[in-house]
Amino acid sequence: MAGRNHLYIPGPTNVPMEIMSAMQVVMEDHRSPTFPLLLKPILQDLKKIFRTETGQAFYFPATGTAGWEIALTNTLNPGDKVIIYRFGQFSHLWAQMCKRLGFNVEIHEEPWGTGIPVDKLAARLKEDTAHEIKAVLATHNETATGVTSDIGAVRKAMDSASHPALLFVDGVSSIASMDFRMDEWGVDAAISGSQKGFMLPAGAAILAFSQKALKATETSTYPRCFLDLTDQMNNNKDGYTPYTPSIPMLYGLRKSLDLLLDEGMENVYARHNRLAEGVRKAVAAWGLTICAQPGFESDTVTAVVVPADKDARDVISTAFKKYNMSLGGGLSERRR
């Protein structure tokens, strides 16, 4: 079928024409006296998306996965214990990264289709009287299963245990689309990427760190170079980057921020909720079910369970070949 391929996958998402046009720029000197006029306002406006006044935003020419590594290696030390609840492919991959980086990873398995069990988390943190757990890793929106966890409740669980661990949140498929309140929820490292809510091509890790997390960089001994926050901070304060950035991506991000802030973040959240509710009602009308259990439904990703007598690969193939439409497939585990 001729024409543009329509993306109905978790990411990359369709890039609006306004952003594509904004990225059509000639190359410029990223060490020029005028470059800070582009970068500094972007970093300030990113704080409005993360909903933080006290935190600091960062842009890395990388990916959301790199964002995980940035958070871990800039604030923790080799062998530190971290806790994570595994209930989907991306919480699984984050846990695997921690293992490969040499952290002591405490993994708790939860049924896929559910999210972070805040009561269990609170109980576990209360048990940790020696405060061996240095970070709680929370996947806000589990892309593979279309599940959203309550990060505000995660913070309440941590506070109820009077636990000093850092709170890291994977918001790759939620930030800039769903309600996210970094300061209010006490998030120490918020991790996102360019190819979902920011409506850009893949290729940028977009993050924000609390002052508590930035303070932790001073005692972190983990080896790092390209992903070092200190290098970013030293250069960002003057409006520059420690290495060559993608100029088109920055102009695209500038336009993305303009679109989001002009619409208003509350309106952005409401729009996603309205569209997601429509999708969920349509799925129910078809007689199908979604992977997310009640109370965990995502407003950015809906994972539809293919009937037992059908093959998801056939559905995806037909959609692509007949309708020029890309659908995402499930990852790692089958719905039981």
Question: How many domains, in number, for the residues?
Answer: 2
Radius of gyration from the CA trace? 20 Å
General shape? globular
What is the H/E string?
A: EHHEHEHEHEEEHEHEEHHHHEEHE
The level-1 CATH class of the largest domain: Alpha Beta
Report strand %: 15-25%
Strand order of the largest sheet: 2-10-9-8-5-3-4
Kindly report the average pLDDT value.
95
Count of separate DSSP helical elements: 12
Coarse structural class? alpha/beta
Give the helix proportion (percent range). Answer: 25-40%
The CATH homologous superfamily of the largest domain corresponds to: Type I PLP-dependent aspartate aminotransferase-like (Major domain)
Report the CATH topology name of the largest domain. Aspartate Aminotransferase, domain 2
List keywords for this structure.
seven-stranded mixed beta sheet, two-stranded parallel ribbon, alpha/beta, 336 residues, 2 domains, Aspartate Aminotransferase, domain 2, Aspartate Aminotransferase, domain 1
Tell me what the structure shows.
This protein has 336 residues and is α/β, with parallel strands linked by helices. The chain folds into 2 domains: 17-261, Type I PLP-dependent aspartate aminotransferase-like (Major domain) (Aspartate Aminotransferase, domain 2), CATH 3.40.640.10; 265-327, Aspartate Aminotransferase, domain 1. Helices cover 40% and strands 16% of the residues. The protein contains 12 helices and 13 strands. It has helices at residues 17-22, 36-50, 64-75, 89-100, 118-127, 151-160, 182-185, 211-216, 229-236, 247-263, 265-285, 312-323; strands spanning 6-8, 56-60, 81-86, 104-109, 133-139, 141-142, 147-148, 166-170, 189-193, 205-209, 289-290, 304-305, 325-327. The strands form 4 sheets. It has a 7-stranded mixed sheet with strand order 2-10-9-8-5-3-4, sandwiched between helices. Strand 3 (81-86), helix 4 (89-100) and strand 4 (104-109) form a beta-alpha-beta unit. Helix 5 runs parallel beside helix 6. It is globular, with a radius of gyration of 20 Å. The two termini are 35 Å apart. The model has no long low-confidence stretch (mean pLDDT 95).
